[in-house]
Amino acid sequence: MNLTSAALAYLGSGLGAGLAIIGAGLGIGKLAASAMDGIARQPSAVGDIRGSMIVAAGLIEGATFFALVICILLAVK
Amino acid sequence: MKRVLGVIMLSAMLGSGAVFAAEQEQQVGEQAEAPAAAEPMHEGAAHHVAVGAAHEGGAHQVAGHEESKSSETAHHILHHVADGEDFELEIPVPPYHLLTVPIASWFSFLKIERTPGACGKPVPAAMESIPGVSSWLDGCWDLRPTKAILMMWTATALLFLTVFLGRKRDANGVPKGLLTHLVEVLVLYVRDEIVVPNIGKAEAPRYTPYITSLFFFVLFMNWLGLIPGMFAATGVLAVTTALAVLTFVLTQVAGIRSAGLKGYLAHLTGGVPAFLWVIMIPVEVLGLFTKPFALLVRLFANMLGGHLVVFFLLGLIFMWALGAVAVALPLTIAIYMLEIFVGILQAYLFALLTSLFIGQGVAMGHHGHDDHAEHAAEHAH
Q1: Complex ipTM, two decimals?
Q2: Preferred mutation among A13, A48, A65 to probe B, highest tally of B CBs within 10 A
Q3: Per-residue pLDDT tens for A41-53?
Q4: Residue B97's pLDDT band (boundaries 50, 70, 90)?
Q5: Domain boundaries, chain A
Q6: Where are the domains of chain B?
Q7: Residue B237: closest C-alpha in chain A
Q8: Global pTM?
């Protein structure tokens, strides 16, 4: 196996992207679960909960994209 | 009405696929012809494509092997998503040469060289990752507009057009007309749901114009990238950096306005005893920069990644066979719809977080004095 630095960079980039999306999926899944619980307890608050859920999902995805940007940097350099 | 919209959207996507096909074929055709003929074969408008493809053909002759279809597609897509000096209008004008808008050469008077030959100087090894800064310090002030700046101007022009068309009011100042109502709803939403809850009613009128402009500007830039033939300026790191710098400046201005310079600097110490200042102040200063940095990376990565995914899903048609349309097109349409939503969500999030940071700056001034009791007494009557 010819492990050049470019090959290692691609490998690292792929693994990193996969790990990043695991983190994002778990985080946003937990968030959505709590939001569903909240809506189930108080259906009249669905508007507020939906708004907060979307904002929080955006913030979590922002953190994920940090990791993704590093993976893209590895892959193109 | 909905059916018409759906048909228009579908044909736009298919049209962009067809344009891709035309350009791809042209590149492949030119690569095949490059070994046979010399460079000046197409005197038409697509000089850069000819030169680029001939360069590719020449380089590959030297390398001795052909670029595979997938890396060719990837190269093509990355060229589209990155900033550049020319703007290629991907409209298949017969005979399928692409119109190029050579913006950088129109504005070549903006390439200021303090010393002649400053722009060609090689970059020292220490500054290799930031060649732009190195050439700026060397005296090459290259202020020519690029593709991203052209897109920002387009977004601004569209914004002006929208607001100009949406200003119809009747004698009493009540808005009338569909576009006026739409603009009014959005602006009121930004003011009442984004600015006022975060900044407070007192300071909101000072910052509402900026936050509204920011929201609409980012929104239009994001959505402009989805139109076939246009380019998303927010997918360029420099544009989001500029927006984040503005946010940073406004946050500090809000803090200094409300707490005074001494209060603002006092906040930087974080309220710890004097002997811990050596540790605290660098950490706090660093903390000042991380929040706008998060803003900029979030917007940039969302826009770049989203558009890249749309391009690559369409590019599957070229990397595999033509029959991949059955798989690629529904996926592309789904991700395209998601991108429309993500565009507006990221604009909303950028505006919301900016107003949150400004609100934190404004709130810096209310910790120091104990004015709650006085305010309560005032409001009592």
Answers
A1: 0.81
A2: A65
A3: 999 988 889 888 9
A4: low
A5: 5-76
A6: 2-99, 108-142, 147-380
A7: A69
A8: 0.75
